[in-house]
Amino acid sequence: MAKFTAKPNELSKINLTPRRKEWMDTPVEIREHMYCHPAKIKDLQTVDFSHAREWKPADEDWKLPQNWEQIVLDGMQALLKKYRSFQVFMDICVRCGACADKCHFFIGTGDPKNMPVLRAELLRSVYRGNFTLAGKILKKINGARTLTPEVIKEWWYYFYQCTECRRCSVFCPYGIDQAEITMMGRELTNLLGLQIGWIAGPVAACYMKGNHLGLEPHTITSSVELFVDDIESITGIRVEPTFNRKGAEILFVTPSGDLFANPGTYTAMGYLMLFHELGLDYTWSTYASEGGNFGFFTTNEMAKRLNAKIYAEAKRLGVKWILGGECGHMWRVLHQYMDTWNGPADFLEVPRSPLTGTVFDNAKATRMVHIAEFTADLIRNGKLQLDPGRNDHLKVTFHDSCNTSRGMGMLEEPRYIIRNVCNHFYEMPEDTIREKTFCCGSGTGLNASENMELRMRGGFPRANAVKYVREKYGVNMLANICAIDRATLSASMDYWNPGVQVCGAHELVANALVMKGEKERTQDIRLEPLPGEEETENV
Amino acid sequence: MDLKGLLAAKKDAILRKWFDAVLESYPADTSNFLKTKKNRFANPVGYSLTKGLEALFDGLLQGVEIETLSPSLDSIVRIRAVQGMAPSKAMIFPFLLKNAIRGELEPELRGDRFSGEMTALESAIDALALHAFNIYMQCREKIYALQAEESQRLTYRLLQKAKMVCEVQGEDPGTGSSKDTKK
Ligand code: SF4
Ligand code: SF4
Questions:
Q1: Closest CA to A234 of A395, A386, A390, A372
Q2: Ligand 2 atom closest to Cα of A402?
Q3: Overall pTM surpassing 0.90 (yes/no)
C-alpha cells in the first residue's frame, strides 16, 4: 500500500472559502435544479398576462420588453400606492437580523440571499434608489441601487425561493411580512412576463375549466366514482355523493389535487364517508371544483378572478353555506381575502352545523367553514362513533401547514381530531410546530419537479424534526391538513425519512369512523390489511 | 502512548479543526450561523455535521467496519448532495480529517514513530470517503427518481382511470411501498 506522505498535503491548498463580498456585489448565479421552468406562452395569454414569450432562465438574455425599466418602476409605484403595508415594510426594517436565520431556505441552502432580511433588501434597494430622497442622493451608502437586468434576474430567482410561509415574520419585532414582499416581487416580475410554468399552467386551467388540472365535469364525477367503489369494498357501504345539486344545504369545495393525487385521494375518501355517515345535505360542484388558488402566487387580481367562482356557484345552487376541505393556501385566500374580493356573501347564512347546532361565528363574514373545525365540533358533541384502534398501526405526528397555522390560527382543531381517532400521537419539538412551524419547502407553486433539489433543501428543517420523532417514538405517519403538503411532504419524506408516510387528518378519521351497517373492516383506506388482518388478507 | 491514545486525547481540538474546515465550503455569513447556532432544530445542518463528524471520528478510532458508519455518513452526505456543490467539493469532507489530524498533531507526527499507524488510519479515511461516494450517488439518483415518482403520484387516479396502473403487481406511488394495486 502506498504510504501517505506526512508533508503538508495538497488538500490544504484548495481554497474552499468563497470570497467575502457585500451582497449587492455578489452577482446572482442562476443554478439549475433551483428554479422552475418558465410559463408556456399560451397559458399566459389565456389569462391576459403580458409579455408572453420564449425565454430560458439559463440564458444570458431574458428578452425583457424594451421598456422593462419603466414597466417595473411604474408597477412599483402603483403597488406602493395601493398597499400601505408594502410602503411600510419598505421603510421600517431596522436590519436587526432577528429574521435572518428563521427561513427554511436559508437554513437548508446556506445561501445568504435566502435570509428574509436580504430577500427583502433585493426590492428595498431599488425602492430606496428610486423612491426615497436619501437613496437618490446617497445611492449605495444608503443601501440603494440601480435597476439592471441583473437585478431582475435576482428578483426572479429569489422570489421563487420563498414560499410565502411567513415564519420569518413571527420573529420580526415589527411584524414585517416577507410573504407580502415576495408577493410584490412576483407581481413585478410578472409584469415582464417572467412567470413559471408550474403556476401559470394551473392558473390557466383553473380559469378555463374551474380547477388546476383542467378536469372536465365527467372526469371529476368518474374519479369520485372510483372512490365510491373503493369505499364499498372496504366498508360494504355505497356512498352516494351528488354533483351540482340545486337546493343542497351545503356546497363542498376542496382542492382538486385530492381527487387525483395520492395520498390526498384517501383524504377525499374520508370526506365522502364522513358526509354519508352524517346524512349531510351537501353537494360537490364540477364548476367550483378547485379550492386552491394558484392565482394567489401571481397577482392579487388573478387570485380574485379565480376565487370568484366559489360564491358564484354557491349562489347558483342556492346553498346556505360552504364547507371547505383540507388545504393550506386555499384557506389563506378564503379566510383573509375572499370576503373583500368577492363578498359580501349576504345571500348565504352564517354557517351552522346541522348535526350539533353549533354556529360558526368565526365564519360570519366568509360563510365558509374549514372541515377541521366542522369535524372537531362533531367529535366534541359526540356525533361520531370512532374506533381509534383501527389506526393502531400508525404512529402519527402532525405538521402545521403555514397558512392554516400562521394564516388563520388553526392550531387545536386538527390535533383534537387526531387525538380522538388515533391512539399514538406524538408532537414534534416546540420550535418547529404551531406558529413556528417549518414550511414543507415547496409551497406557493414551487412544487414542480425540476426544482427538486431546492425543495429538498427547503424541506430539510421540517424533515429534520420529523426524523427526531421518528427516532424517538417510531413515528411512521406525518399527518397534515393541506393538499399541497400531502404531495410535497411525500417526496420530502422519501428523501429524508424513508418509511414515513403522509396523510390528511380525514384519512385517519375515515379509518376510525364506525359507519352504521358497515361490514367488519379488514382493510384501511389505502386498501392495506388492518393490524391483525394480514394473515386473512394473504389467504 | 500510541496514535489512538493521542487522537483520543486531542479529540476535541481535532474535531473543531475538521468541523471548521468543512464549514469553509459555505459563505461566511452562513458558516458563522452553522457554527454558532446550537439548537439542533434551528440549525439542523450544523447539528448534523457536528454529530456526524464526531461519530465518524469515534468509529475510525475504534477501527469499526466502515459499513457500520453508514448512518453517520448518510446524515452528512444526504445534506451535501442537495446543496449545489460540485461533487468534489461536497465529498471532500472525509479527506479534510487528514489535514485536521496532521495540523493538530504536527509535532508528534514528525519522524517515523507513528507512520505505520498513520498510514493505516489514512487508508481507513480513504475507505470512508469511497463509501461516502456510494451514498452520494444514491442520493443523487434518488433526487431524479423522486421527480418521476412524484409525477406518477400526482396523477395516480387519472392513470388508474386510463387503466395504466391497475391489475399489476408493482410500486404504489401513494404509499411508497410495493403492493398489489388491483382492486
Ligand atoms: S426581523 Fe424585521 S426588522 Fe429585523 S431585519 Fe428582519 S425584517 Fe428587518
Ligand atoms: S416567508 Fe418563509 S420562505 Fe419567505 S423568507 Fe420568510 S421564512 Fe423564508
A1: A390
A2: 2
A3: yes
